Amino acid sequence: MSSIFLSHSSKDKFFVRELAERLRVYGVKVWLDEAEIKIGESLTEKIGRAIDEMDYVGVILSSNSINSEWVQRELQVAIQKELSKKKVVILPILIELVEIPPFLRDKLYADFTSPEKYESTFPKILIAMGISIEENKHIIQKVDKKESDTEMTATEKQLSEFEDIRIIGLDDTKTYKPNPEKLLYDIFLELSSYPPMDWRDIFKAERSFPRHSMWRHAWIEGSYIVINCVPDELYRLSLFKANIM
Question: For the whole model, what pTM was predicted?
Fold first, then answer.
């Protein structure tokens, strides 16, 4: 069983949880500080030991992490391990377009910065960890089936704990085309109530993690969910009918 320590900023927690969950499906042992460190334990000692014990260190690169003192410390420990082992240990995982730290620039990184790149990038992490895609076709089929099921994701379950907030319709008066050269519109879906801050934070974090090539940008504005998409995409989902010129 391959193992990996995911070094990240707490602000990127939602992405990291989703990535960890998918890696575990393929039999990868994942070390996350939130699950492994107990109250009263030494962070430095526990993390140092974990990095030493795991086969790989996945460094989540974002605007949050490159400014994180803890991530920099973890990276220094990982670099020392890579030098002493004389083998690849650090796997850079880019989730935002940021300047790569100097000591990682000569490494090929996993690019998760856009929806189009997600599906082709994830298998590369498995290959880098010595996991055969060919030998795990049955797992891939299992993952595909799970993603097609109607079961709620962990984030959906968390959102369901809030007071029921539903999409109640489309506000035609707000819908517009931000870029005349593209077919995409900003479509405003009205919510049944104004979502609280925690609800909005979860929504924002979830939408920042692309799941497929048709992943559309969506955000919260007041009591609306705004989706940047082609109107026909919503029609096919039978969400509503609207007149958009």
Answer: 0.60
